[in-house]
Write a structure and sequence with these properties.
This protein is α+β, with helices and mostly antiparallel strands and 748 residues long. The chain contains 30 helices and 17 strands. α3 crosses α5, α8 crosses α11 and α14 crosses α15. This is Tex family protein.
């Protein structure tokens, strides 16, 4: 129970909850399945808590694996003592464990090794005792021509090398240095001389310093990237005098003699040559890990919000991938997203075949009974939107812009080639734009999440950790919404609990060969889809118009018998129970509690019966940018404009206002009150009203505000907002945050 107690304490839950969760995970259950269908076992732990248990148990098992290897190594060296074994077994972190092992860790040939080979270890021991003796005479005892110890100073230097290594390997010293670096260290960055022009995008970091403990993730990653690209020099150390004082306090005895002086020299050498580089590396790894975790958290949350964007639903859609010189690629899609027609139109310069393009659009709208037109928000997007809106189409036809980030990635992918082997890349891109409008989740799962454009430094963070977090996010979103098994793509089915790529492909193949599934039970006929996979997946798969009414709901098949008993007790059918609120109100849940089914599951079932298969996503709302504002040159300070949040970072939110360059609403301008986390105020795809604060066309920077009176602190000039900010202290972030943010949206 050691793991369970530790994790329970860390997460603030009960040990039995953790134990049950670990058993389910070890048995092959997924996070979505456990949090949805095993609430009684886990005590209603949610997805976040279940995932936390999973990740922590993996870390602790890795720690124990390393502990066993270290115990074995020390035993084989014949150096194990009861005290050492107790220390190794009691180490609770990897760094503590490695500190204890460091003196016993096989090393390359070091200065201390060479000194030992020269027989100088006894001298080092005598000096390190720090008693008073004749240092010169003692050192001369170790002179040896054969071992190349020719002078007393050479002997003393060798002894100091050994002492320096002892100090470096002292677990208490290392722990104090680690704490000092983290609490009092600073990140200091300087531009490499001669690279000022090349490194202009890192200008804010040419002479920058801030405490390690408070440096936000985006600045840590920015400085590291500048260093990696050989534009910046980056240090991360505390004051040397402070470090030396702490080491001396740990190893220097309260005495004054020549041996103590030698130890002090060894302390300085140990710090500069061994401890400082080691601690700097370790602290930079720790801060990088922390920065990665924050960047990944932000990315995952943005991705979740994007995936769960409101779907238009099953409607006939025209999708347009806009362009000037190469024209606009236009496709027509059926209500299930099936490709019906392709056409290229040229309404803009240089061809300017506007009348012809207009006739084509109107003809196709009528021919395919188009209900909505999706226009990509890339180059020529606003111009194409204005062109379509000028055609006098029926008011019932929705015209809206769609974020096309990643559409080009999809169009060149193997997924797109398999779906549309005979279509050009640009045509596939238009199809993706249209399908994103119909169902963002179903379409976006086909693209590598890193290509969707809602991250922050996604190429600089730990790629394995990023992939795991994003996979978790996609799986959570897919299973939270549920999947219609008869229309879902292989890519969407892949993320269903318990399936994966192989079983997803088998389902698609079975469906193609045998026709649509008529029941969940039929899934068991799919090759290699056994009882375990069925248990994990069935509740998240929907079958519209199935024989059994519960097959279209989130009620798990293992609970059908229970629901049928509820209906029978009320002398009604399951279908009648689902359609009658009056009947459902008569159900007394406590009558159906058993050893395996408790009130949490019964409440879920009752809620699902009232809204079977309900899509939890918001209802689609039409959005339009401000007419006449199509480029940055149309912007004026003080303009109030509608926009759509495209990306959220730790320091603010990026908003598309329809000018082909997203603007930044800094954290300090998200609301009239203090905001610590942007997610308190905004979400990806949210429609917002913003005020233009600053426009820098040469550097493509737009500063926006969501405050009710954004210029209140700037002063007024003849009743008009002053475009130049007053030099006031920004309590929520430095100007470096804002400038760094506007400099390309971190890898987008």
């Amino acid at each position: 129970m050691q793991y369970e107690i530790k994790i329970a304490s860390e997460l603030g839950v009960k040990p039995h909850q953790v134990q049950a969760t670990i058993e389910l995970l070890d048995g092959g259950a997924t996070v979505p399945f456990i949090s949805r269908y095993r609430k009684e076992a886990t005590g209603t732990l949610d997805e976040v808590q279940v995932a936390a248990v999973r990740d922590r148990i993996e870390q602790l098992r890795e720690l124990d694996k390393r502990r066993e290897a270290i115990l074995k190594s020390v035993e084989e060296q014949g150096k194990m003592t009861p005290e050492l074994k107790k220390a190794i077994e009691g180490a609770e972190t990897m760094s503590k464990l490695e500190d204890i092992y460091l003196p016993y860790k096989p090393k390359r040939r070091t200065k201390a090794t060479i000194a030992r080979e020269k027989g100088l270890e006894p001298l080092a021991e005598r000096i390190f005792s720090q008693t008073s003796f004749d240092l010169q005479a003692e050192a001369e005892k170790f002179l040896n021509e054969e071992l190349e110890v020719k002078t007393a100073e050479e002997a003393l230097q060798g002894a100091r090398d050994i002492i320096a290594e002892w100090i470096n390997e002292n677990a208490q010293v290392r722990e104090k240095m680690r704490k000092l670096f983290l609490e009092e260290g600073s990140f200091s960055s300087r531009v490499i001389p001669g690279k000022e022009n090349e490194a202009i995008k890192y200008k804010d970091y040419f002479d920058w310093s801030e405490p390690i403990k408070s440096a936000p993730s985006h600045r840590v990653l920015a400085m590291r990237r500048g260093e990696k690209e050989l534009f910046l020099m980056l240090d991360s150390c505390p004051e040397e005098l402070s470090a030396l004082a702490r080491i001396e306090k740990e190893v220097i005895q309260d005495a004054a003699n020549s041996a103590v002086d030698q130890v002090k020299l060894a302390v300085k050498d140990s710090y500069r040559r061994l401890l400082k580089p080691s601690m700097e590396t370790e602290v930079r790894l720790l801060t990088k890990k922390k920065a990665d975790e924050e960047a990944i958290r932000v990315f995952a949350e943005n991705l979740r919000q994007l995936l769960l964007g409101a779907p238009l639903g099953e409607k006939s859609v025209m999708a347009i991938d806009p362009g000037f010189r190469t024209g606009c690629k236009l496709v027509c899609l059926g209500p299930q997203g099936q490709f019906l027609h392709y056409e290229a139109i040229y309404p803009h310069e240089p061809q300017r075949r506007t009348a012809e393009a207009g006739m084509t659009v109107k003809g196709l709208v009528e021919k395919y009974n188009i209900q909505a037109i999706a226009i990509g928000n890339g180059t020529a997007g606003r111009e194409t939107e204005a062109f379509v809106k000028s055609l006098g189409l029926p008011k019932s036809v929705i015209v809206t812009m769609v974020n096309e980030s990643g559409a080009s990635i999809y169009s060149a992918s193997e997924v797109a080639r398999n779906e549309f082997p005979d279509l050009d890349l640009t045509v596939r891109g238009a199809v993706s734009i249209g399908r994103r409008l119909m169902d963002p989740l179903a379409e976006l799962v086909k693209i590598d999440p890193k290509s969707i454009g809602v991250g922050q430094y996604q190429h600089d963070v730990d790629q394995n950790a990023l992939k795991n977090a994003l996979d978790d996010t996609v799986m959570s979103a897919v299973n939270g919404v549920g999947v219609e098994v008869n229309t879902a793509s292989k890519e969407l089915l892949t993320y269903v609990s318990g399936l994966g790529p192989s079983l997803a492909q088998n389902i698609v193949d079975f469906r193609a060969e045998n026709g649509p599934f008529s029941s969940r039970a039929q899934l068991k006929k799919v090759p290699r889809l056994g009882d375990k996979a069925f248990e994990q997946a069935a509740g998240f798969l929907r079958i519209r118009n199935a024989k059994h009414p519960l097959d279209s709901s989130a009620v798990h098949p293992e609970r059908y018998e229970l629901v049928e008993k509820m209906a029978k007790d009320l002398k009604a059918s399951v279908q009648e129970l689902m359609s009658s609120e009056d009947l459902r109100s008569k159900i007394i849940l406590k009558n159906y509690v058993s050893e395996t089914v408790g009130l949490p599951t019964l409440q879920d079932i009752l809620e699902e019966l009232s809204k079977p298969g309900r899509d939890p996503r918001e209802t689609f709302e039409v959005f339009a940018f401000q007419d006449g504002v199509n480029s940055m040159s149309d912007l004026k300070v003080g303009m109030k404009l509608p926009g759509v949040v495209t990306n959220i970072t730790a320091f603010g939110a990026f908003v598309d206002i329809g000018v082909h360059q997203d603007g930044l609403v800094h954290l300090s301008h998200l609301a009239d009150r203090f905001v610590k986390d942007p997610n308190e105020i905004v979400s990806v795809n949210q429609k917002v009203q913003v005020t233009v604060m600053e426009v820098d066309i040469p550097r493509k920077r737009i500063a926006l505000s969501m405050k009710s009176d954004p210029f209140a602190e700037r002063g007024k000039s003849q009743g008009k907002p002053n475009p130049k900010p007053a030099k006031t202290e920004d309590p929520q972030g430095t100007m470096a945050d804002k400038l760094a943010a506007l400099r390309g949206k971190f890898g987008r």
